[in-house]
Design goal:
Layout (H helix, E strand, L loop, with lengths): L9 H11 L17 E7 L18 H8 L2 E7 L5 H10 L27 H7 L3 E6 L18 E4 L22 E3 L2 E4 L4 H21 L5 E6 L20 H23 L6 E7 L26 H4 E7 L8 E3 L3 E2 L3 H9 L14 H4 L12 E5 L2 E7 L2 E4 L2 E5 L15 E5 L2 E4 L15 H18 L45
Parallel strand pairs: 1-7, 1-8, 2-10, 2-11, 3-4, 3-7
Antiparallel strand pairs: 2-9, 4-5, 5-6, 8-9, 12-13, 13-14, 14-17, 15-16
The structure holds calcium ion.
The site of calcium ion has 6 residues, from loops.
Amino acid sequence: MTSATRPYGRAAAFLLLLAGSCCLPGPAPARGGEPPPNIVLIFCDDLGYGDLGFSGATGYATPNIDRIAREGVRLTDFYVSSAVCSASRAALMTGCYHERVSIRGALGPKMKVGLSHAETTLAEVLKARGYATGMAGKWHLGCLPSQLPTHHGFDEYLGLPYSNDMWPHHPEAPKDFPNLPMIEGDRVIDADVTALDQKSLTGAYSRRAVEFIRKHADRPFFFYLAHSMPHVPLFRSDAFAGRTRRGAFGDVIEEIDAGVGDILRTLEELKLDGRTLVIFTADNGPWLSYGDHAGSAGPLREGKGTSFEGGIREPFAARWPGHIPAGSTCREVAATIDLLPTLAAIAGASPPPLPIDGKDISPLLLGSPGARSPHEALFIWYGGSLQAIRSGDWKLLLPHQSQTMNGQAPGRGGIPGKYRKLPVGLELYNLKDDLGETTNIAASHPDVVARLRALGDAMQHELGDASLKIKGRAVRPADGQDGTPAAQGAPPTAGRGPETRAHAAAAP
Ligand SMILES: [Ca+2]
């Protein structure tokens, strides 16, 4: 089969028929006597805080994503657990800080480490409640067949098992990566994804979401749409090429937005609007070394691979007509770790048996009067070390080595520039007054520094700290972490920052 004729659809359609023939009866009503809502979770890769229309993007338009915010709630202070792919996704899927489940950095194609089967994923929580569960897109929590989404609670899966730049066409490390496979279920349906294939990714993923919604319109469903884009290399279909003033990056975002439009229209057509919660967010901030192929963190400092706000704070919007007040904005601190317990609560599902870090933020989403963040503090690890603590308006950075493109020659056309190292000291910022983290006021607020350091110290002893050589007492192992020869090495990863040198194999 030539590349041009690969629609990622035929094998998929057959498997879908099989899956559709064994539908389970729907679950009992959730709270309030209504059936539990459908959930569509749209998750982008390397999307910056400023990359959407509602968050200030210029040069292209995102009317459909903006509609989610306009007809729902926007969380302005929404965090991932680490500014890098696998760690961030581990937190999303488990409701735990990634350190608790020993997934760090960006897992490479040759690694045999993955998310532990002892963890309960968001998909498993909802599946146990009677949901149909599907996923399209980037998984990045283990690429062995037994580690793929269909072995972690998803009824079906179509996508790339890891980042779309982990292929032989990587601009800097082409020899580090094998051919990039496309997966359906837990089988390879295309052993060598080409540039032409990458152009079809966004559309194929969005179509899969629409197909899944149509197929499961009569029962609660959960679909996780984890776009490979706008992670580099940027690809969009011919229909979107050259549409925007922002070049390839803008085109890519508009194609993602068009897919969101298809999803929203499908929900309307099927009269599922008021029964479906749609969430849009992303895994980490922009990969700034890629210059014109990177997104923007807007007013936030730095981007991917750093624990400044630009790396860890993401745009977030959620829409559920009749339940979430339209046009609302919430400035309380929340995070991806909260989505599992929140969606479990909304669905009336049982929480995981093992301890998790996330909290139920449904009062924030649903606009309950006086709702406040359930977190005294959020903790940001990177490369195994605790780097940042957010509590109320305060943000404390602990001493570490970071990276910046300031003063560096920017990347261009898909070829990255080079970061320079940025030493970070003990730095305190008040984000209410200083969103861009420009003025370190640690010296004038020793009481705040002491309080946040004490909170951090407790978490370092619970979940560990590599730079301090603290082994966390509550850390749980990843799949394949112990005693697997391939997990002992340091396989190549795609980036050039410190984030890609740290991964699960190095976890305690
Ligand atoms: Ca990412």
